[in-house]
Amino acid sequence: MKIKFWTIFLITFAIETGITYFLSSQFSVRFIEVMFFTGIVFLITSIYFSGGLSYIKEQQDAKTHAETGFTPFVEPPTIFRRGPFFIASLTFFLIGLIFYILLLTEIIPPGSL
Question: N or C: which end of the chain has fewer CB within 10 A?
Answer without folding.
Answer: C
